[in-house]
Amino acid sequence: MKFLPRLLGLGLLSLLVMLLVMSCETAKTGTNEFGSPNRIKGEAIAKPESRQIVHFTDTTTEYKTTRSELARAFIRQFNDGTVVDKIQVRKAPGNDGAPVTYYLIGMGLRGGTFRAMALPLTSSGDNTYYLRPAAERYTLTSVGCPACFFNFENGRIVGTSCTESYPGSHCDLKVEATNELFANK
């Protein structure tokens, strides 16, 4: 007879655990194909691993990912001791009538040398811009220049230029096919 209360208690405990697990599954918020609940209605812009960066209104720029989080992500992406202390989202110069391209740019120094990285953002159609893991990564390294700039053509980065030309000074540009700014590590 001692086994019957234990068996009953074990059965009730199992039932309670099972109900708890099932309630956790049903309490999850619904997600659309972009990985976020009802964020964008019908816009096919990105996969769930894309990261919302910024939203523009008529009067403001609202960072959806904080600048401090972006700076930490850029420092991890550089992975060479570069300290990123300036983050910005900039509209790329382009031809009139062409689609507008925005870039997420992180700038800083490594051992006194200017470094910058730019990543193109993808529009959702509602003035919100996302960073895709498959977005190209453009990295600048200064060689004797106080600072470097990205050169654009038709909204795309095509080269670099140095702020001041000294003999032997230049800016090196490295282009990678993807980025791991927000890769889970």
What are its keywords?
five-stranded antiparallel beta sheet, 185 residues, 11 strands, alpha+beta, four-stranded antiparallel beta sheet
Sheet with the most strands?
Answer: 5 strands, antiparallel
What count of helical segments does DSSP give?
2
Strand element count: 11
Distance between the termini: 54 Å
Low-confidence stretches: 12-46
Strand content: 35-45%
SSE string: HEEHEEEEEEEEE
Q: Return Rg in Å.
A: 24 Å
Class derived from helix and strand content? alpha+beta
Helix content: 10-25%
Shape: globular
Mean pLDDT: 77
Q: Which strand order spans the largest sheet, edge to edge or round the barrel?
A: 3-4-5-8-11
Write the layout of secondary structure elements.
Blueprint: H1 3-26, E1 51-56, E2 61-63, H2 67-78, E3 83-91, E4 102-110, E5 113-120, E6 122-123, E7 128-131, E8 137-143, E9 148-153, E10 156-162, E11 170-176
Antiparallel strand pairs: 1-2, 1-7, 3-4, 4-5, 5-8, 6-7, 8-11, 9-10
Q: Quick recap of the structure?
A:
With 185 residues, the chain is α+β, with helices and mostly antiparallel strands. The chain is built from 2 helices and 11 strands; from the N terminus they run αββαβββββββββ.
